[in-house]
Amino acid sequence: MADLCYKLLDSDISETIITSPTLAFARVVNVRCGESKQLSEKVVECLREANRRLPDLHRASSALAESLFNRLT
Known about the structure:
By secondary structure, the protein is an all-alpha fold. The chain is built from four helices and no strands.
């Protein structure tokens, strides 16, 4: 799922089209953060790209912050 999301974010597709799948991905990551401490590097890189490409998508920003925080604890 991270690979597909990253490919969407890396494409030339407009932000309005990629917002919904990226939001769904961020929701899944938030659920997984609650279940396990470590997420794969692909997931973190996808969230970083989402944060760069869609800076107003707060769910992706918070999922990135939570996943990075969980790495430290």
